[in-house]
Amino acid sequence: MKCQLSPRLLLLPILVSLALLGLRVQRFAEDPVTTTPALAGGDAADRQRPAGPGFHWHGGVAGGRGNATVKPPPTRHPLQPPYPYPYRFLLNEPHKCRDQTPFLVLLVVTEPGDTAGRSAIRQTWGNESSVPGVSILRLFLLGVHPVFRQELRPLLEEESLLHHDILQQDFLDTYNNLTLKTLMGMEWVSKHCPNASYVMKADRDVFLNLDYLVRQFLIPPKKNFMTGYIYRNTGPLRNKGYKWYVPHEVYPNNTYPPYCGGPGYVLSGDLASKIYGVAQTLSVINMEDAFMGICLHALGISVTDSPWGVFNMYRIEYEKCRFSQLVMVHHYEPQQLLKLWPGFQEPKTTCHH
After folding, report:
1. Which of 88, 263, 266, 319 is deepest in the core (most CB within 10 A)?
2. Topology at the third CATH level for domain 89-345
3. Where is the signal peptide (predicted)?
4. Which one, of 138, 116, 139, lies nearest residue 129 by Cα?
């Protein structure tokens, strides 16, 4: 005798599947794909770190620690990087400062697959011996490749073992997560090299003259100091067509506090720890350099003006005498630097300024 199943029983698997699908959709909506959750493993205590207090806006820019009784928004905009979050170091160099106190920690932003770019930077302005008599420590900042994470992992581990200069955390390596990269660098300095005199953050597509920077602007060491190309009285771009689009939900004010342009800026070592600390209390935005300005404002610290033109946000044609009096020039690819760097390092010719 055949057993006749009730129509309700036949529908049960379908209903369960639909319910599970609904839960997955809801979870996806609450955790957009601008970042990835920390990978399996890590310290359980770190994973239970609280999300931090709320904050408020004051005076047209981000305020301080804010009112801890104010509840954060129930959802996060997809362009807003999740922070604070217990991101885990996949590659780390926690002992780099054990036997030295560097004068300058150089943090270079690169993508996971840019092996050739990192190699070129090591041979040019990122050479730790580029400033005679000055201790420089170089580190590259990476996230996780959105597609080729597993394929790149053994290559990055090999590169890390060879050069000991790679920091990587488990967030997606995307443009909107550049803020997370810089905060990773500030975290590393705070925890593993707090006595460094200075920290410089640089993009991979710049020309840097660290010798001129150190000799002209960093001696003697300063406190609460940050300089670069200074932007003032600028605000978020609200048009979705822009690469630098920042919606009201991410940053509600019309202006940013003064900040240093992202391709290259330098700050005193004590300020790195302060920025990392105050960042735990603020709402992070997807514009990395502007967020550094927001952190400074919350700390009550002002940027320091640099002489006009020594930090160049636009490409200018290479000329040895001119570049010898500059700190940074944007839009120089690492492979281009390999061609001009040997001539730039030759004994100085007579230059008329």
Report:
1. 266
2. Spore Coat Polysaccharide Biosynthesis Protein SpsA; Chain A (3.90.550)
3. 1-29
4. 138
